[in-house]
Amino acid sequence: MGDAFLAPAAARTPAVPHVREEQLSPGVRPVNVEADGVTLSGLVSEPAEEPARAVIVALHGGGMNAGYFDGQAHPDVSLLAVGARLGYTVLALDRPGYGASAGCFPRGQTLTAQAATVRAAIAAFVDRHAPGAGIVLLEHSFGAKIAFAVAAADGVRQLLGVDVSGCGRRLAVNPPLAGRGAERGLRRLNWGPLSLYPVETFQVSRTVVAPMPELEIGTVGRWARQSVVILPRVRVPVRLTFDEHEGWWRHDDDAIADLTAWLSATPRIVVDRLPHAGHNISLGWTARAYHLKALSFVEECLAHARHTAPR
User: How many domains does the chain have?
Assistant: First the structure.
């Protein structure tokens, strides 16, 4: 979805923002990953001690970039920082149409095409930086759809699980709202009460916000139809987190039952509700709580993989 804070206009960024290392958390650095002739930019953090327990690949939502996972408003917010401290390599990619690939894909890519590009990028990164490591996809909002499509295609070696926030199956709003201008209603959907976020969040948003490509805006309303094909093919554990103030997606009991029913091949589904959180969950005061729960899920995926591996 459109997850960016779209007002005021000064908060918007060009398609390829220039990120300086002093704008990143300690230990986090920019990275470029070649994927079938396409360069995807992003951010990476690695543990001080090798090897990494696993590789976490994070994909941002619509209207954001990889900086979403390295929030600078407060030291507790960054997934990249806490993940590396706990022994994981964390790769936050700028999805196709964002960052370095914006010039190659000025209109973005469709969901299926994005999934193929991301699969190639994950394989290239892991082969070079953490060969043989297990992989967990940790995605937000529109990025969650890509993660499900990647998992459904079964094209990622050593994929252990998928952790999703800010994405359901049934929209709670009219699809034309997605990608529109700076309206109060859109801001409420993207963020919820602004008190849920450190004040500095909106002062440093220049490095996090990015234009939402045209093709992404056009696919928002098609997810319910696409999901009935994609979700039943996911065969790894899945964790779903819904924030208290989620406005884009229905997350009542019936909607969640419908979502989990389509994940029919998944060996395990975890559903979590996070109080005092808005849609942009990884930038709020509860980001650390969410990230630690997600990392706990990664440990559970590692245990599941050990238990089910051929002896």
Answer: 1
Angle at 217 between CA 252 and CA 6, to 5 degrees: 85
Query: Is 273 domain-assigned?
Result: yes
Tokens found for residue 276? 């005092």
Tokens standing for residue 236:
């790894």
pLDDT value at position 184?
Answer: 61
pLDDT tens sequence across 56-108? 999 999 999 999 999 999 999 999 999 999 999 999 999 999 999 999 999 99
> For residue 298, what is the domain's CATH number?
3.40.50.1820
- Residue 2 domain-assigned (yes or no): no
Low-confidence ranges of the chain (pLDDT < 50): 5-17, 179-182
For 102, half-sphere exposure in the C-beta direction (CA atoms, 13 angstrom radius) is 19
Question: Is there a contact between 218 and 177 (Cβ–Cβ < 8 Å)?
Answer: no
Q: What are the angstrom distances between the C-alpha of 130 and each of 101, 119, 136, 172?
A: 24, 15, 13, 40
Between CA 229 and CA 28 the distance in angstroms is 37
Beta partners for 135? 55, 159
pTM to 2 decimal places: 0.91
Confirm whether 259 is domain-assigned. yes
| 5 neighbors 191 (Cβ within 8 angstroms) | yes
C-alpha to C-alpha distance for 291 and 257, rounded to whole angstroms: 24
Query: pLDDT tens-digit profile of 19-59?
Result: 556 689 999 999 999 988 999 999 999 999 889 999 999 99
The C-alpha atoms of residue 35 and residue 37 are separated, in whole angstroms, by: 6
CA dihedral 19, 199, 280, 285 (to 10 degrees): 110
Structural domain including 255 reads 9-308
Residue 1 lies in a domain: no
